[in-house]
Amino acid sequence: xxxxxxxxxxxxxxxxxxxxxxxxxxxxxxxxxxxxxxxxxxxxxxxxxxxxxxxxxxxxxxxxxxxxxxxxxxxxxxxxxxxxxxxxxxxxxxxxxxxxxxxxxxxxxxxxxxxxxxxxxxxxxxxxxxxxxxxxxxxxxxxxxxxxxxxxxxxxxxxxxxxxxxxxxxxxxxxxxxxxxxxxxxxxxxxxxxxxxxxxxxxxxxxxxxxxxxxxxxxxxxxxxxxxxxxxxxxxxxxxxxxxxxxxxxxxxxxxxxxxxxxxxx
Length: 266
Ligand code: DGL
Prior knowledge:
This protein folds into two domains: 8-97 and 211-263, 3-Layer(aba) Sandwich (Rossmann fold); 98-208, 3-Layer(aba) Sandwich (Rossmann fold). It is 46% helix and 17% strand. The protein has helices at residues 18-27, 49-65, 76-89, 98-108, 120-125, 127-135, 149-154, 161-177, 193-200, 209-221, 243-254, and strands at residues 8-12, 33-37, 70-73, 94-95, 113-118, 140-145, 181-185, 205-208, 235-239, 262-263. The strands form two sheets. The chain has a six-stranded parallel sheet with strand order 4-3-1-2-9-10, with helices on both faces. Strands 6-5-7-8 form a four-stranded parallel sheet, with helices on both faces. The protein is globular, with a radius of gyration of 18 Å. The two termini are 25 Å apart. The model has no long low-confidence stretch (mean pLDDT 95). The site of D-glutamic acid (DGL) has 18 residues, from helix 3.
């Protein structure tokens, strides 16, 4: 049985979800966390719906077996495709990253023109457009898949000439659309904020859903599941491929907290 002192479970296709975990730890420092990065099977953003569904269920099951009290789907692609089904089938709360980002974007936009960028699977699913329209029917949504952003960030390239060229190529059309808000609908994109801001200019608000997701986790736990103990929580990491790269790249996302990671077989 899970209880208040059980951990918060977080999964992502790989490393990127650490941006979400980082905000959860900032918001809820007393909580223990268990993170699963499915590094052997990433990226999810180019995979089919059936495959992303299956992986998302397997990842959630792993966390449930570890006794977590809530599952946070840190991956936008998994959220876009699998969140509804996971919420139906799991007996513990499941929180995704799309609704929180959408909420923030709706608050932020003045001219009701909102851009969304994400992986191919996320954009193709239409999940962001549906959520934005459900929140405010008058919002015009401009969306675009940016498949090269993930490998750039994984390579540690966040601020060089190649990044600038790629940002220009993907985001050029957003300039004409007159959006005042751009949702960074992928775990990796917050690391490209500087380059994106430089290209889009300061008048376009960039929405990173991590902070808002952490608030949603907090409010889900407020229903009697917040940790009772004092002191800082413990953080463990599991991966499905060799941990070395995860630890190295993970430190870029989360600093020294990523001391070690345990490999699990799939
Ligand atoms: N975690 C994925 C997302 O947020 C990006 C990386 C991938 O394609 O697996 O959509």
